[in-house]
């Protein structure tokens, strides 16, 4: 029997403030538009846009920003019953985006004591998790306690209830204390996940080195639980490795790039959606790449998430 | 011989993000405009707009927001040589303004670990202070260490060098730990200031009670250093008391109110400007009220600060 | 070829201040004697007393107490080259012992910001760990960062280098934030250890419940790495379970109890020593029980650790 | 009419652990004796021993050490009704004393998150303070919030109720963040005190310089409230200055020095006792010096506080 959810995402749901006047330094930007942001929120929104049944576990601020986030996510069809409202005046994380040029994008982050990092392990509901086939974990949720322990608890529930875990590395330097901490907690989660997705640089952070190879990464992780490992190399495309030794590759789609934000999240949303709808890995990689190409051509991350039709049109157009 | 500065303001210089779509809850606002904000920054900007020679002592973030603040203040003619750039990743404070109606305005504040509260006492330069006639202290700078100690240090330099101190109570509940702390530090500074300006409610916070009277407040403070005490009662107007027993009153000017933000800062800027330009107290009160009336009719606080001509036109129009 | 060490213990080495006047409340005790204390330090000292080659990884205070600890441990033959001297004014943990009666003992702990909890993962040396057959982890080292991460790092080195890990649960409520944290980190370490030793109550803490059974505990842990699980039931004796289904039991030895402190540490030292010297599990349990019986009859924990001869005499005397 | 108390002391009451085996480094000391310690507690005890009516305002730990402190102070006749029992697991401060030689004494301090620094301003009772003629403030209580604010509150009550304030500088580097903080808060309190007592070095800390002179110190402080300033120069004796320009000097008494701890506290207790019993300043200085000479010849600070008879005998013997 089908479960209630195709995917439950766990982690942060925040506010993006995107420069309306762009192709300039942010000092010269006066107007900003507000969107929902944060990697797992974007993946949840992207999945819902593609038609998946989606739940979300997280903590949001008890203010106008928190309510905006919950309203937006509910409007796209996400179940927000497990988006807990913080009661200790923690704020929503903010990301002011600066778009100097398509190649030069940066983010000014507000992540001090943000609500999402205060999700507690006792607030993760095992009965809720049992209603999904797939749990998506975002690496940033590991950066601080108690959110870190909430992830560890969710992973242990997932294992106990035979729920697959996808780990999107989503490494952001802010809020982490030391590279050693990153490496230690990323390794623990990656070893216990079924699917791991990240950029080459993110795997290097996890392995505590620079210049690592995909061979080393897959040698290491396939000794543990993972069955499918996706490693992204930016415009050079991405690779998927399976435990039985198969390797798949996908290029990237041509597009008019406005900014680079949101590429990874839209990739993950479409890739996981395709897999859970019975597509083969090769097709899933194309879905991921096409979805990313569409989002980087638009102003927002969350609102720009494509439909299945848009993705298939782009794939068809560039085959 | 005239000093280099008419006034040096000490305290926070932050970012206001004002709702572009207003007369609605902020959940429904999508676009925000960025302005410089924060009470002492607004007073400095207002003073400069009126033609005063202005300096500023504060700490700003080492990012796009910090640079925007410094650029804007330098552009209106403020000396920013003592606006120290934070080196520990503290951010600029943010104030998202919500304008539901002219009567219902609120602010969503980001004040956790903001740069301005990290100004240290050893960063306050006695030689710089000696170049002004008047030091303006903003109460919010007392909320946390080390900014609290920077204020205490500045006060001690001012006393040592016969510089007048104006204390604008500027009470904001965020970042203060307890009402007792508010009362203790507000009292210490008020007792050592020459001019104290605040609303009736703010004096009540200082005195640790509710329903206090102007009589009680002036009885208390005139035992200490203050010579001039301004107490504002909102639309009912404001009072000025002098140590020799004189009382002055001013009404408020009619205007089309857009929002209430910025009223107090524009009042203080114009009132202090008038005093330091030899106007009598009665005229100074009119300047304050007229300046406030102009700012509450406009969208921003800092950019809306009026010129002397605009103030005098309004006073003349409503005499 | 034999390795340099039989056992390396990782965790805290602290100061015990034992009441000289006892059988009374500590309020009435005026004189205290100073000993080295802390579970892993006691186990290291006990092991060295029995003749094992012992190393220690930990962080000690840069003061008279820290130097006393290192001197004492070096004097009993422990390699102290990896006892790192703290450089940030963290103090040695203290335990003032109160002995009201043999049945009523309590400890007044000083554990705020103690040096041992500041051991960092980057201070754990893989080359040093490779020189041992067995790594002993103490649960209290998991209570806070960065010591928590140092343990996780050590475990990962141990696994990589085929070093056996013994996990002595050593649960102390101080310094832990919540029961959920205890359960989460105890579970992670227990699942990755080869040998787990603790009291019934400590396993309940790990499993996040009360009234758990040995059957439930062994069912859970034998799904993971552990091969040998020791569960102590106080005066009712202790049980050892092996992955292949065998169960061993040991009673406790008669003795004149002075206080209960140090029982668990002396038990673990003698049990692990016996195992690593080729004794069978049944004999190892006797060693543990006899060693505990000897220590509870004496004033200190560390100085009272018995020799092999003393243990064998007691076993022989009560067979 | 006489008030209920001659003196109320405010600040820390802690535990001293004095080396029983001395004239050696503490690493070689095994036995320690427990006494009540902390400057204001010692002054309170010394005053009570001399026959004064004494009250105490402070916060003590909710454990055996806290109860020992309260019992001991009550036993010497101090009113302990305002010694508040901490409810948040803060511990009593500890001072392990090392006596290498009479000239080489040091202290190993445990002052992290100690109960006395958590006294809150709202816990200072104005009605209680009104019952004394003299309030003694100890500088260490200024080192952290909320104890710092409790002192500021007590000072404001004292001023309001015409209670004299004696400020014993009692500077201890631990727990202070920066020299600027020391200087700022010491100055505020000294300027508002009636009597200030300290060593030459402590006044230098207050003035934020080194090599200051008594002339500079008295020039500065006599511009403010103080009427009597005592400056101690160790074995060279001490000076008392009055606002009307008088200067008094006292030498030190010959004694067999065991250790230097407790000298300042016993000095302050006897000096203030003499003053409040109508002795002239010259006699009060002798009382202070004689009391100090007696305490440094004995093992403890608090228990060694002399009686009036002992002090007068020593003065007579060496006249």
UniProtKB/TrEMBL annotation, chains A, B, C, D:
GO terms for biological process: inositol catabolic process. It catalyses: 5-dehydro-2-deoxy-D-gluconate + ATP = 6-phospho-5-dehydro-2-deoxy-D-gluconate + ADP + H(+). Pathway: Polyol metabolism; myo-inositol degradation into acetyl-CoA; acetyl-CoA from myo-inositol: step 5/7. One of its GO terms (molecular function) is ATP binding. InterPro entries: Carboh/pur_kinase_PfkB_CS, DKG_kinase_firmi, Myo_inos_IolC, Myo_inos_IolC-like_sf, PfkB_Carbo_kinase, PfkB_dom, Ribokinase-like. Keywords: ATP-binding, Kinase, Nucleotide-binding, Transferase. SUPFAM superfamilies: Ribokinase-like (SSF53613). Its EC number is 2.7.1.92. Residues 6-307 form the Carbohydrate kinase PfkB domain. It is an enzyme of class 2 (transferase). NCBIfam families: myo_inos_iolC_N. Belongs to the carbohydrate kinase PfkB family. Catalyzes the phosphorylation of 5-dehydro-2-deoxy-D-gluconate (2-deoxy-5-keto-D-gluconate or DKG) to 6-phospho-5-dehydro-2-deoxy-D-gluconate (DKGP). This is 5-dehydro-2-deoxygluconokinase.
């Amino acid at each position: 029997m089908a479960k209630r959810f195709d995917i439950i995402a766990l982690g942060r749901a925040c506010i993006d403030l995107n420069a309306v006047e762009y192709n300039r330094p942010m000092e010269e930007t006066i107007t900003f538009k507000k969107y929902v942001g944060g990697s797992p929120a974007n993946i949840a929104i992207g999945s819902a846009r593609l038609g998946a049944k989606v739940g979300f576990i997280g903590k949001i601020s008890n203010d106008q920003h928190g309510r905006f986030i919950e309203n937006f996510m509910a409007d796209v069809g996400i179940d927000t019953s497990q988006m807990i409202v913080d009661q200790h005046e923690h704020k929503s994380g903010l990301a002011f985006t600066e778009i100097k040029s398509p190649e030069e994008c940066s983010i000014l982050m507000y992540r001090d004591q943000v609500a999402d990092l205060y999700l507690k392990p006792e607030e993760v509901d095992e009965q809720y998790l049992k209603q999904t086939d797939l749990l998506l974990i975002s690496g940033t949720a590991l950066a601080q306690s108690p959110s870190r322990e909430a992830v560890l608890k969710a992973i242990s529930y997932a294992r106990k209830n035979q729920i697959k875990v996808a780990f999107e590395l989503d490494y952001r330097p802010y809020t982490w204390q030391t590279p050693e901490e990153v490496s230690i907690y990323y390794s623990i989660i990656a070893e216990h996940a079924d699917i791991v997705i990240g950029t080459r640089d993110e795997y290097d952070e996890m392995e505590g080195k620079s210049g690592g190879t995909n061979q080393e990464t897959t040698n290491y992780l396939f000794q543990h639980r993972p069955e499918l490992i996706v490693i992204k190399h930016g415009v050079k495309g991405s690779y998927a490795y399976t435990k039985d030794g198969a390797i798949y590759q996908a290029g990237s789609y041509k597009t008019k790039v406005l900014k680079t934000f949101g590429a990874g999240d839209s990739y993950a949303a479409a890739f996981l959606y395709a897999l859970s709808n019975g597509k083969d890995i090769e097709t899933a990689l194309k879905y991921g790449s096409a979805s990313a190409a569409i989002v980087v051509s638009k102003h927002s991350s969350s609102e720009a998430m494509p439909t299945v039709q848009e993705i298939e049109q782009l794939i068809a157009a560039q085959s």
